[in-house]
Amino acid sequence: MSEIAVTEEATDDFMDHRELLFSLVYNMLGSVADTDDVLQETWLSWSARARSSPLDTITNRRAYLVRIAVNHALRRRATISRRRETYVGPWLPEPLLGPADEPVDPALRAESVSLAMLVVLESLSPLERAVFVLNEVFGYAHTEIADIIDRTPAAVRQLAHRARAHVHARRPLYEAHPRVRREATERFVRAAIGGDIASLMEILAPDVTVWTDSGGNRKPAGLRPVHGRDKAVRLINSFAGGRRGPQDLELTYRRVNGDDAAVLFEGDAPYAVMVMDLTPEGDQVSGVYIVTNPEKLTHVRKDDEEDQ
Length: 308
Known about the structure:
Elements: H1 3-29, H2 32-52, H3 61-84, E1 97-98, H4 106-109, H5 115-121, H6 126-137, H7 142-149, H8 153-170, H9 178-194, H10 197-203, E2 204-213, E3 226-227, H11 229-240, E4 249-256, E5 259-266, E6 269-278, E7 285-291
Parallel strand pairs: 2-7
Antiparallel strand pairs: 1-4, 2-3, 4-5, 5-6, 6-7
Helix pairs in contact: 1-2, 1-3, 2-3, 6-8, 7-8, 9-10
């Protein structure tokens, strides 16, 4: 087989699995830019393998590509960790946006990890996170994961147990119905943008936490997460409409990591993505995640939005 034919075959295989690889790596890293870099590294490794020996000798090309991507992602975690050491303020994952009227298909949601869950996954070790994502999100068996990360099945089971216990202790299993989440999101945003302090106090849970990720590039922003309703109201008020806050913001609703969220534009430029996490009862906001770092909003386009 000619080298051109080999390259075409390798390209077809890679593109057939690219969506899976992107989702897997993004859930391990929480960064679109790093995920794109890892996929490029995966392609280079895959194409080199295709040139060195026949692809027909690989019985499961999907598994082979996943193994390459996961191991490149694990190596990338070291770079990300070093970068975090100098990051200004709280770090939040880079939001993945979809249209506001995107259907909430349970089969598609199964591979959508919420922004709130990604924040919890940040506290896992790289191996624990890889095992959790592969097992809990994508349904890989422990024996399959063992082959991917070159560990014994017993070691993978131990990693999975630790990761699951850690996540479940910090993240309730309850998921609000999409309609409830949408209504709560709209109530919160109306109160925040309108400066309605009374309504904010009503919808925010007493122990609410607010994260504002600006990377030091936007003001106002908290240098650390803000806990408690009173402090949260002051921060949100200064962010959304205070003296130092942005002016003439345009509000749209979009899906962010599979959940309803608010996207704010200043002119044609994205200003912020706001994602709300709800209490188990679904009637109050327990967490607010605000991404304003322009470097994390480069994929947000105003002309991508759908009319409401």
